[in-house]
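Extended Data, panel c. Modelled sequence:
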Amino acid sequence: MFTTAAIAQILIALAFVSIPLVRHRFGPAAQAAADREVRRQGVRPEVLGENGLRFDAGGHETWAPVSFALMMLAAAALNLAGNEWGRTLSWVFQIIVLLANVLIVYSNLTAVPSVTAAFAEKGDPELARIDVKAFLDAAENAFPRWVMRHLTYARHTIVFGGSLLVLIALITA
């Protein structure tokens, strides 16, 4: 059963690593599209960067998914080695990863109201003029369709399904 858990954890790690890889490859095009849209709205594109909004693989778009991937790989290695710490850490790490993915899905589903609220909190008149939905749509449309639809769904399926598989393997072991 621990081999099954380890395989699922390796797949989950790969799913998380896909986030910065995709952002690295397609993020500059998404940033350029967002900048064009904001400029079309009469706002300086630099205001996005000045307020920490970016679409590349920088910042939390890399360290967070890579951290989750490393947690999964550590637990998988211990599980494959038959080390009891693998079981203990799997319980902790798997729940963290599962909750983090719930937050990622929530963040994706509430992006427009969340970014709108964040812009309002800043009190910056330039940010207040931005049509958030239009600029987020422009950035999203710069990613290939397979990324936004297929890869995103596959990643969430692997993380949720794999996490359930790991937890079931832990319970039945």
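Residues 2-40 form the longest helix (39 residues). This feature is highlighted in the accompanying rendering.
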